[in-house]
Specification:
It is a single chain. This protein has 719 residues and is mostly beta strands. The protein contains three helices and 41 strands. The longest helix is centred in the N-terminal third of the chain and has 14 residues.
């Protein structure tokens, strides 16, 4: 492609997404014709399953981003936490062993056993209820779909903020596979493998495995060397059975082990800790340093199995899903983040869940399409001896248990007439929970039970100007079910919360104005009520969980994909978010004291404050370029992500400053060996300081760190 055409495509793309110049088709018609004649490459359609059926991304009236696993890997996204860098409006954070995704400012900061994220995460359509299991390496992923906004009908369980759906490939009859080896800074080493083949007519199997880790990047000022080491294992097996043309079943087994002590290898934020008082201990003087006396860690292990079937009938399909998930996790934290033995906590936990879903959905191209279904979930989460230490002595050891049984029925229909589509759907959910807690010698909280019911719904209208341009408007309601405080050891602290509810109003457009250009955008407003928040009781300092706040969220999102040439693709996005607590007079905060450390808990009116983990703006650019030569194919890929500052606490005192993350990858495939890819990479090129978690307690403000600048190399072979 000539430089003139390259320049014209970039100029046209900028013109079409610039206010006042959008839809300037007359001005670009000549350049479009020239570009198409010189290079017929266009943006390929992306098929997604955001509405439980295969549809073009551009036809779905929902704000969705779908990215292939290969594109994510080349952009430096290799585990779920790094989705922040590549998906609009996503902040994937953590607290100790709990991983907490946020979408458009909506997420949970609670780390209670038995609680669930209000941004749902699915793997191959299976809901993942355990927050400690949401952090893992992305191995052999086909694509990831992020649905923004409440999905209160079809994916109704706890999808207040949206959902993340990770899709892995199904087995194939043809023999295929891959091996990827990677080495990098701080002792990083990993090996991934995948193989798929048919073992009988209509029966295919695949195996996926990964093992990796590093030696840590948090400098240990006390013992020397480094803390924050990480290790990971992934194993997955799938069996696809298709005995006839109209029936298929997929049996999947998953195992993940994830240990990462980086976030809990903390330091006092801005030096604020009671442990920093005289006599002054060793204290960190910069990022990626720690000086603590506790052997901190955060690790999890999860086993799961699922069976999914699909029966294709004359005018509709019947689909089923059954799954079992078993998870264990433990976090070991230092309460003061110094060398003094002021306090530490060991929190072992275990969970299991059983899920079942059945759906019937119409097929064909009739004017009316529909889907109906039912969902069931039951499970239990326990703290298996939550230990608190003060001055090196065991203060308490408690056992808590929370059980849940939930049922839901749902349905949605779409009526099409001409260019107009009208969608209406509803979901009814009913749930029962029970809770109890005891110590080694006494019952702390006797058995108690609660229930709640909720109806959520979605109404949407779409107008198609053409097959390549449409607008939509929607109103939807989502909710997160009520829950017990998994830390509660008194009857007063064990009251269940009410469900939290979000009402979403959204308008958007999706368009392919040119065959090599895609532009999607949306505007949205949320009314968010009965937000479940955790705080400390001012008298007992015990963790409380309560419905404390309401909020309003307004925002805008814009995404653009430019296929500059057959070998050069650019995907960019920008978001604006104004997320504030509308009413939050009952917030509880810790205030720093002049003598270091925090004062006792103080009541605080957080009304009007920014919601936590909700940056006002983000901008991201992902690119992928390759060039064929006589000796082979060279490639350059990467992403640039910028986030405005955001806060980790209700007072807006614990701040993540604005930062820019730059990742890059340079690759080479020798001539005649397209299945071999050698690459070198850099992550966090600007060496930005990004906090992985920040917490405030009676003893300290604490901060953990994401990785600094790292380099590495990898080799990938496909067959």
């Amino acid at each position: 492609m000539s430089n003139r055409i390259f320049t014209s495509r970039i100029a046209i793309a900028v013109a079409l997404i610039t206010p006042g110049a959008a839809w300037a088709q007359d001005a670009t018609r000549a350049a479009q014709t020239q570009a198409q004649s010189d290079d017929q490459s266009g943006i390929q359609d992306i098929v997604i399953t955001a509405q439980h059926r295969e549809e073009r991304l551009q036809d779905v009236p929902i704000a969705v981003t779908a990215v292939s696993g290969d594109s994510l890997a080349r952009s430096g996204v290799t585990d779920t936490r790094q989705l922040t860098q590549s998906m609009p409006s996503v902040v994937f954070s953590r607290v100790n062993s709990s991983f907490q995704p946020y979408i458009r400012g909506v997420g949970t900061r609670n780390a209670n056993i038995g609680d669930e994220s209000n941004v749902s995460l699915y793997i191959d359509g299976v809901y993942q209820p355990v927050m400690s299991s949401l952090g893992f390496d992305l191995v052999n992923v086909e694509r990831i779909e992020v649905l923004r906004g409440p999905q209160g009908t079809l994916f109704g369980r706890n999808s207040t903020g949206g959902l993340i759906n990770i899709i892995t490939p199904d087995p194939t009859q043809e023999l295929s596979g891959s091996v990827v080896a990677r080495v990098g800074s701080y002792g990083e080493k990993s090996l991934q493998g995948y193989i798929s083949t048919g073992i009988a007519p209509g029966v295919s199997i695949d195996l996926t495995g990964s093992i990796g880790g590093d030696t840590g990047y948090i400098k240990d000022l006390v013992n020397g060397g480094y803390r924050g080491d990480r290790s990971s294992e992934v194993a997955r097996a799938k069996i696809l059975i298709e005995p006839t043309a109209n029936f298929r079943m997929v049996l999947t087994g998953n195992y993940t082990r994830y240990a990462d002590s980086s976030s809990v290898s903390e330091q006092p934020f801005r030096g604020n800790s009671t442990g920093a008082r005289a006599p002054v201990p060793i204290l960190p003087t910069g990022p990626w340093q720690t000086a603590i006396d506790t052997p901190t860690n955060a690790k999890s292990k999860t086993y799961s199995a699922s069976l999914q079937t699909r029966l294709t009938l004359e005018s509709f399909n019947i689909e089923t899903m059954s799954a079992y998930i078993n998870s264990k996790a433990v976090s070991i934290t230092d309460s003061d983040a110094t060398t003094k033995p002021i306090g530490s906590v060991i929190a072992p936990q275990s969970s299991y869940y059983i899920e079942n879903e059945i759906r019937a959905l119409s097929t064909g191209d009739s004017a009316f399409s529909w889907i109906v279904g039912a969902f069931q979930l039951s499970g239990k989460g326990s703290f298996d001896g939550l230990e608190s230490y003060a001055n090196g002595a065991l203060v308490s050891r408690t056992f808590t248990r929370q059980e849940v049984v939930s049922y839901a029925g749902f349905g949605e229909g779409t009526l099409r007439f001409g260019p107009v589509s009208l969608i209406a759907g509803a979901r009814y959910s009913t749930e029962k929970r029970n809770y109890e807690a005891h110590t080694a010698t006494a019952i702390a909280v006797p058995f108690r039970e609660s229930s709640n019911n909720k109806v959520t719904y979605r109404f949407s209208a779409q107008y198609k100007f053409s097959p390549s341009a449409n607008v939509y408007a929607s109103y939807s309601r989502g909710f997160k079910s009520g829950v017990y405080n998994g830390f509660a050891t008194t009857v007063a602290a064990a009251s269940p919360t009410r469900p939290e509810t979000i009402d979403s109003y959204e308008i958007g457009f999706k368009t392919d104005p040119l065959n090599w250009l895609r532009i999607n955008g949306s505007l949205f407003h949320y009314d968010y009520t009965d937000i479940q928040q955790s705080a400390r009781d001012p008298v007992t300092t015990l963790v409380l969980l309560f419905n404390a706040a309401s909020a309003k969220v307004d925002g805008a999102e814009l995404e653009a994909t430019v296929r500059v040439s057959r070998n050069f693709n650019i995907r960019g996005y920008g978001t604006y978010l104004r997320a504030k607590y509308d009413s939050f007079p009952t917030a509880q905060i810790f205030r720093p004291m002049p003598t270091l450390g925090n004062s006792s808990i103080a009541p605080y009116d957080a009304s009007g404050k920014d919601m936590i983990r909700a940056p006002r703006s983000t901008v991201g650019v992902n690119f992928d370029w390759s060039h064929d030569t006589d000796v082979g194919t060279f490639g350059v890929a990467g992403n640039i992500f910028h986030s405005a500052k955001y806060y980790w606490d209700f007072e807006n005192r614990l701040t993540q400053p604005a930062y820019t993350m730059i990742n890059g990858d340079i690759s080479f495939s020798p001539a005649g060996m397209d299945n071999l890819r050698l690459s070198v990479f850099v992550r966090n090129l600007a060496n930005e300081v990004v906090y992985s978690q920040m917490t405030s307690t009676a003893t300290a403000d604490k901060a953990g760190f994401e990785r600094p600048r790292t380099f590495g190399a990898s080799a990938a072979f496909k067959f």
